[in-house]
Structures are given as structure tokens and as C-alpha cells.
Write a structure and sequence with these properties.
The complex is a heterodimer of chains A (209) and B (580). Chain A has one domain (3-203). Chain A contains 10 helices and no strands. Chain A has helices at 3-9, 17-24, 50-59, 65-78, 93-103, 108-126, 135-145, 156-174, 177-183, 198-203. Chain B has 580 residues and is of the alpha/beta class. In chain B, the strands form 4 sheets. In chain B, strands 1, 2, 7, 8, 9, 10, 18 and 19 form an 8-stranded mixed beta sheet that branches. Chain B has a 6-stranded antiparallel beta sheet with strand order 6-12-13-14-11-17, covered by helices on one side. Helices cover 21% and strands 18% of the residues of chain B. The chains are: A mainly alpha (209), B alpha/beta (580). Chains A and B meet through helix 1, helix 3, helix 5, helix 8 and helix 9 of A and helix 2, helix 5 and helix 8 of B.
Chain lengths: 209, 580
Amino acid sequence: MNRRDSLKALGLGTISATMLLEACKPNNKKLAEDTNDKPETEDASRQPGEIERDKKLKAEKFFNEHEMATITVLADIIIPKDTRSGSASDAKVPEFIEFIVKDKTHNQVPMRGGLRWLDLQCLSRYGKTFVDITEAQQLEMVKEIAYPKKAKPEMRQGVSFFNRMRDLTATGFFTSKMGIEDLGYVGNTPNKWEGVPADVLKQYGMEGV
Amino acid sequence: MSDIQIKKSSTTYDAVIVGSGAGGGMAGYVLANAGLKVLMLEAGPFFDPAKSSSQLKWPYESARRGASTNTRNFGDFDGAFGGWDLEGEPYTTKDKTEFYWFRSRMLGGRTNHWGRISLRMGPDDFRGHHIDGLTDDWPITYDEVKPFYDKVDRMIGVYGTVENLPNEPDGIFLPPPKPRLNELFIKKGAEKAGVKVIAGRGSVLTEALPGNKDRGACFYCGQCNRSCKIYGDFSASSCLVIPALKTGNLKLITNAMVREVLTDHNGLATGVSYINKDDMQEYQVNAGIVILGASAGESARLLLNSKSANHPGGLANSSGVVGKYLHDSTGSSAGGWLPQLMDRKRYNEDGTGSIHIYAPWLKDNRKLDFPRGYHIEFGGGLGMPEYGFGFGIQDMNGAVPGRDGKPREAGGFGASLKDDYRRFYGTGFGMAGRGMAIARADNYCEIDPEVVDKFGIPVLRFHYKWNNDEIKQAKHMQETFQSVMHEMGAVYGPMQGPETNYGLEAPGRIIHEVGTVRMGDDPKTSALNKWCQAHDCKNLFVVDAAPFVQQGDKNATWTILALSMRTAEYILDQRKKLNV
């Protein structure tokens, strides 16, 4: 099988590798909106039952509107928009979190309970739930639970919740099209691996290793 | 009237092969190419990587971003149709021992998703009794298997480097992929720690395979575990069964779960019975030779379930050894990250989906407190972010100063946290020991007297315990990992201690289970002769990892392929001589 045949076998037709490389660059793609929910029917890589299970999970609703609103605010506090890329909600992280807690059910109680814990903290401090307090208050609250080593002992449950929320937000963001582009991952495309580039070898003094 | 019938075929095949993985696939390939009329039965569906691989999918094409599920134990894109638990196909354990049994139900079996790490067993691995008396010798030597390893290398392709090491035989190698940046740090650190690191050995075509027009050369996506659309790596589906089908001599029936091996009044095998999962009907097929390549567990189960007047303890089991001497590789692992690599330059570092470097076992066990060795598989680089990316950043980002050089508080949120993920990307690495576990008669599988699967087939019950030999080996692995990571200048956690048996994985977790239908010269202590032919039933052969007397620290697949080819050639020879 020569290279052209190989590309054909990959379903890439006769396009050149350079075009392919271009096409695979995330910034050439459309908005993040269309990234997450590709139809999985007719996919020969799936086992019977897998497609149905995913469909069923997607049709179910776990978080209520208030919980989703809270998740969205928290996710954007964790991963805000900056000069390089958009925010967690721009990359549809809240939707990912909704799916993953249905898929990995061990997250359900800690997430639901953690959100409620947060609201109760805010109610007793500010008289309102997390989404309804001011941005400054939200940040003040988050600071109490975002730093595991210096958090007060009575904040430990909040720290555990925030660690989970941070993990899910980061994973959701950096596995989205937008996040992968931000990160600068340039693989997942046909190429020829010829070792670490010379300038990088030199940078780390690894030429002779 | 019952709607269940047993449908008997009037055709008699030259051979029927149960299973389509490395062992069954190779036997089918050799026999069909030699002109025999062969029937192959596979318990799962047809699978062609060219059509059914998830290769080159992006994480966001999975709603769970590539995370694992109960039906995809190694992630949403992994190539295995199967896993540790199959719906309706249980197995049990005995005396509160542990064993985990991974089964892939699909054409090509577990070779669709395996790590492609392709190591030959060495001369010492075949003669364990001579080394320390702890295990039995194989009835064959490395020199007898070498020509078949050579043929497998040429036919299927394996990369590596010629090293002339004592018990790590070289093969006929394609060029290996160069190490990734993290792997250069590993190599340098390991060598300082006294651990020799060499190029990996993997069945991936880093160059076109001479004389083969059906397989493409690797294009370095690093996704061998998804199976390869251009057949750039070895799967039994793409490299053996699908080519064998093209001879016209191999008939394949998929979704055929074999129930038992049928025998006649002379005790010879006449064929097998199976349930067709598509129509749920029972079938019997006839063949002059029965070849089992169903996996070490399933082949033992089939034999033990094939009882008859001539074979009251199960077929090929007058010795009582079938099911015994079950052994998986040992495994223990560690990982960390390299602060030196923060903010590293980006480039495509996917490489191959097999190992780029590894450390063979070169130490002298006479100077250590445990028998037999292990090799270490290493990895790390700018891999594709998938589910799990960024987890636990609070355990990393307080360990190093921020961009401004000032100390950072662990955890956090916002712009500086977002930047941390970028800074830490590509700094991680991992290492995993894979060692020789001792084959013992009291580690075994047997038929559970009370439990059947959804097809009514009695299931396996496992009894498996590690002992101090394996635990001390795992301890040595952990100590070695610590010194390698120290020499690398890495950040890493404390070593795993006695509370986890030094990170020793539960039996079965490494998916190298072998030894359940072992070969030997003495019919009283072995089920098969040195050609993998049953002592008790001369037209019955086993070609998976069940015949292994004692596995080396080397992954089993390359030896399965070599032995299956050897057995298939023996069958051709014996047919010529009219012996089978």
C-alpha cells in the first residue's frame, strides 16, 4: 500500500497530506457549537448497545436549571475567556459535565451535594444562592475553596467539590476543539515521526542521548 | 414443539479452528494457504479495522471525550469489543481469591487493541527448571522456536534494534521510532540509575513490509489500540484472517459461541458444537482436526466442558492439568512529571502506538531476593488530550513557581490556572513493569459446578493468589522506578508500599494469562505434546497461550504466533504422512 492508497483507506480520498494538515488545524473549523454532538448512528466502530446507551444518556436530564446555571458560572470562573481562547461555557463545558455525570454516575452525589453545599454557604454568608450574589462575592466564595493547602478546615467539603469541578471543567475544555487548539496539540494527523526536532534536542542538551 | 434444534452439518472440513486471535488466526492463515478446507468459528462479530476503527477521531467526537465505560475498558475509541465483564457471560472466583478475565468478542480478538509490544522469549525462559528449579522446563528450546520467530518477523513485521543481549533475543527488525522528548529524559535518567534502555520492539510497520501490498506503512498517529485502518500494525483480523479468507479455503462463521468439542467412540475429535448468537440455534460441525485458539481461559473451559466416556475428566485431561498453572504477567507502575519541560515547544509527537523505548531484564536474580525478572515499558510526550486531561492540577501547580518566578499556591482558578494547563502540557511520563509470574498448580481455573452463562455453558471459576516471589518483584520494580525518576529530575509521589503489595496489579489485569493447557513430554504432567497436540487425542491441537509452560517477562503474542505457525506446519507434515 503506497501513501496515496493509505490516505484513501483512511477515507481521506485523494487530498494531499498538506491539505489534510490544514484541515486538521482546529482554527480552520467552524465554531465550537458544532463540535460535541456528532451523530453516532451508522458508526461501524460502535458495538450494539453503545449507540443506544449514548442516545438514552443524552435524552436524560440530570441537573436542573439552577444547578446548570451554577455549573456554568463556576466553569467560567475556572476557565475564563482570555486573549488565546474562549471560556469554558464557550466550549460547551457545562453540557459536557451534564453528560459525564450521567455516564460516570459516581460523580452524581458529590456534584449535586457540592452544589447544594455551596448554595448553603452563600445563603448563610450573603443571603442568596451562588448565582445570585455579586461577582465579587462569587470570587470571594471561590477563593475559600480553590486552594486546598490554605483552605480553612471547615471548607474541606467545598475544596473536594471544587477539585472535582475544576477537573471536569479542565478536561471538558481542553478536549474540546477550542481547548485543543489553545493547547497547541498538533497531532492526530498522518505524518512521519523522525524524532524530536533538532532545535528542541539542543534546547534540552539531549543531542547525544 | 420446541423451537430449539441441533442442526448437524453434512460437510466435513479438514480442520475447524475455534477463535480468530493471534493463535487461531495464524493457524487459519497457514492451513488455508496450504490448501486445507478450514472452518473458523469466532464468538464475536466480523471486524475489519479498515472499516471499523475509530482511528483519527478527535476527543470531542466522543460525548465522554474518550473516557472508558463498562463496554470500553480502555476508552471510547479503543478497539476491543469486550472487556473485564461481558453481559450474560460471568466467571467466578474461589476462596476469596482474585482474577480478572478480559475477553474480546470480535474477529481478531484482543489483537485489535493490544499494545503491539512484540518480544521473543529468550533461551532461559524455556528452561526455567535449569535456572532455579522453581518451574518446569518447556519440552522445546529457544533454538527450536527461533526459525518460527524469524518467519513471524518477516511475515508480520516488527521494529527494534539488534542488541546481542543474553536473554532478549534479537529479531529481524524494521527501524524503530526515535524516542520522544520525555523518553530521552527517561533514557538518560534510567542509565544513571543503572537501568539499560533500548529501542522498543513493536509490530508496527515503520517501513513498508517487503512483498506485502495489502498493508500500509505507519503514519504515526499513535493510536494502535484503536486498530489500524491501513493495517499498519499487527491485528489477527487485518493481517491473518482477512488475507486467509482471500484464499477461498477458509470459511468464517462469526457470532458462533462454541459449546464443546465432540468426540467419537475412539476418543478422537470429530468437530465442535456451537450456538449461533444470531439465530440462537445449536449447530454441530465436523472436521478431521480440531484446533483451539479461543484464549487460555476459553480453551481450558472448552476442554473441561467436553466430557465423554473416553474423556471423563474433560478432553485432553487424563493428567488433570487442564486449567492448572494459570499465570498472568506481574505489573506495577509509576509516573510523574518533568518541571524542566514546562512551556515546551509544540510539535507532533504522537509517534507509534507501541513502545518507543523499554528496559529489558538484565539483572542477576542470584543476587536478589526474588526469582525471575521483569522489563519496563516507558512512555510520555505531547499526546492527544483526552478525558482525564488536567485532573489533579492542584497536586502539581504549587510545586513550581509561576511565570513571574514567584511561588504559586496549589489549586486556584481563572486566567493563571488556565495558563498552568498549557504550561504543564507534555511534561508527564509513565513507566510500567511487566514481570514473570511463577506458574503454579494451585493457581488455576476450573468449571464452576453451579453457574452457567446465558448460553447454558458452564463457566470458569478462578483460584489465583500471588505469593512473595511476585510481591518482592513488584517491590523491586517500585524501588527501580523511584531511582529512575530521581535521576530524571522528575516530580513524583512516594513509592507504593506493602499496603498495595507494591502496586502489584491483581491477577489477570495485565491480560497476559497463559498456561492452562500446558505442553510437556510426559502425558502424566502435561496435556499437550511439544507440538501442542493433545496427548489423549491426536487430532486435537491448542494454538493460543494455553500451551505455555512458563511465560517469560515477555508479552505473549509473538510466542503465540510462532508456536501456532509451528503447530500448523506440523499439522501439514502429519497430514502428508497420514498421521492425522
